[in-house]
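Researcher: Next entry in the queue.
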Amino acid sequence: MHDVVLAGGWISTGTSLGNDIKALIFTVGIPVLCGLFVLVVGWKTKAPGPTIMACILAAVVWGLSANMDTLQNKTVEDITHYDSTSTVQKGDR
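Model: Structure for this entry, 93 residues:
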């Protein structure tokens, strides 16, 4: 019997397509959706207060998604820091 990998080419195509789609979402999709969110809120409310708050919220979402690598490294540093220096004392006092 011969071993046959079904969809062998599709696996590598899906992997490379996944990385491209991820980059497309973070560089184009999220900023476009943030802008659309601000426009819809401004159009529906026609008031400066909610529109300004929508701008602030969109900026926070856009900024956090743009700095995903930095946030990921920061999370790993925090977990490593708290795992290595335990302040919990074992036993009863």
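Model: The first helix runs from residue 8 to 45.
Researcher: Noted, moving on.
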